[in-house]
Specification:
This protein has 455 residues and is an alpha+beta fold. Helix content is 47%, strand content 8%. Helix 4 runs antiparallel to helix 5 and helix 16 crosses helix 17.
Length: 455
């Protein structure tokens, strides 16, 4: 237990003893003492304790030591701390977050070493850290010998955690997370994401009293500015979206099966991971008019290494929502027809899912991505196909959201349907919303002119 309740007493001389000069002090309710051979030594130690008190340090009641000294006695390495941090986060994290965190720590940790003599290959170190040291899955295979040797080297060479109080050491980590393994500059979003993990790991060191403060706040280094706004040059328009769906139906039988999957993204703005999880029972598909999909989960593909049960998909609730939250999304007649035709032709998986892999299991991203690649070749001109236009199916989600905004749907309703917060919507779709300025001005003018806005 740590406390500021510390009392120091005068040095007591006890003749006839081997160490006759006794320094006594009290931390909380617990007395402490230490004897020295000379009064000078005892006085020096007394001065150290007074300095710690003057600096506002807490003392540990059990050992009687100032917290700075206690920290040094129990100090581990950065590698020890990073491993403990990743393990602490593991149980309550999604599989995607686990992989992202491990990648960031595996980028930073090899830079925080005392020297690089006999260092393993960089790729081997990265793999050893991300796939073993920072992975706590019960389904892990046995460590290969080269991985064990690489981690043993790192355990020997890792800097002490207290060295992170030095700005030069912190800059080594920041430089590492700014670079790719081949030495190139990492993407802005990658740098920002990895810095967030580094910052959180340092905060955990403060929480565990391994560091007095987070050293990042004292380093004059900022992550690059990132532009979250979507580049609408590459978002397919409504006509291009329809052409892409039509082309998908011509790319073998798999294309016909995936046409409605792409349609959910284009017309209902589902994320691909949400579309993967749609059950027949989630759909209301009338013969005419609008229908509805009730989204209640997502199944992002992350690899079996990161999930609790060893499956390739992580069964989660909706993104940034409570696990049991649902999101009803009205769907237009064109998507209702697509889904009715899909069910009539392909049926559903045994568990009720609308979309499945060619072998009948979970639909994997490499399968729908490969079909989308062929779809673009059929639907787009050679010039368009060579550009980033609709180069990932996720851009069709932006087609839906931007279309709703242009149509004049209230941004709060757009955000609800898309599963965004309004703040995120404004950040990603600022240009579209700004383009509605004239329409907004006209409505305000009608109000100012005394017109009834309800008519």
């Amino acid at each position: 237990m740590l406390t500021y309740d510390v009392k120091l007493y005068t040095i007591r001389q006890r003749p006839g003893r081997r160490l006759p000069f006794e320094l006594r002090w009290k931390v909380g309710s617990k007395p402490h003492s230490k004897s020295y051979a000379t009064k000078t030594l005892a006085t020096g130690r007394l001065a150290e304790l007074r300095t710690a008190m003057k600096n506002g340090e807490e003392f540990d009641q059990e050992s009687g030591l100032p917290v700075s000294e206690l920290r040094k006695q129990t100090e581990g390495t950065w590698f020890d701390h990073a491993t403990a941090y990743a393990q602490m986060k593991w149980a309550r994290s999604s599989a995607k977050s686990r992989a992202t965190r491990a990648d960031a720590l595996a980028t930073i940790t090899p830079a925080l070493v005392t020297d690089r003599r006999e260092a393993p290959d960089g790729k081997l170190l990265r793999r050893a850290l991300s796939c073993w040291a920072f992975n706590f899955s019960e389904h892990q295979p046995d460590q290969p010998e080269d991985v064990t040797e690489a981690l043993a080297w790192l355990a020997r060479k890792s800097v002490k955690i207290s060295q992170l109080e030095d700005s030069d050491t912190v800059r080594l980590a920041l430089e590492a997370l700014s670079r790719l393994l081949n030495g190139g500059v990492a993407a802005d979003n990658t740098i920002t994401r990895k810095r967030m993990v580094f910052n959180n790991a340092l905060q955990y060191a403060v929480e565990r009293r391994k560091l007095p403060t987070n050293p990042l706040q004292f380093v004059d280094w900022s992550p690059p500015e990132t532009d979250d706004e979507i580049d609408f040059r590459w978002v397919p328009g409504p006509a291009q979206g329809r052409a892409l769906l039509e082309a998908a139906g011509q790319v073998s039988g798999r294309g016909r099966h995936l046409r409605a999957f792409y349609g959910c993204i284009l017309y209902a703005a589902t994320r691909p991971s949400e579309a993967l999880d749609i059950l027949e029972s989630d759909c209301t598909l009338p013969e005419a008019g609008w229908g509805e999909i009730v989204l209640d989960g997502s199944a992002p593909g992350v690899g079996s290494r990161w999930t609790d049960d060893g499956s390739t998909h992580d069964e989660r609730g909706l993104k940034r929502r409570a696990r049991k939250a649902t999101r009803p999304v009205p769907i237009p007649p064109v998507l209702v027809r697509l889904l009715r035709e899909h069910i009539a032709e392909f049926g559903v998986a045994p568990d009720g899912r609308l979309f499945r892999a060619s072998g009948g299991g979970r639909l994997l991203s490499n399968e729908w991505s490969a079909v989308w690649k062929e779809t673009r070749k059929l639907a787009l001109t050679p010039q368009e196909s060579a550009s980033p236009l609709a180069n990932v199916v996720y851009l069709c989600r932006a087609t839906a959201v931007s279309g709703w905004l242009v149509a004049g749907v209230d941004p709060m309703e757009v955000a609800r349907r898309a599963g965004h917060s309004v703040a995120v919507l404004l950040r990603f779709y600022a240009k579209i919303i700004a383009g509605r300025e004239d329409h907004a001005n006209a409505l305000i003018q009608r109000f100012l002119d005394g017109h009834d806005l309800t008519t």
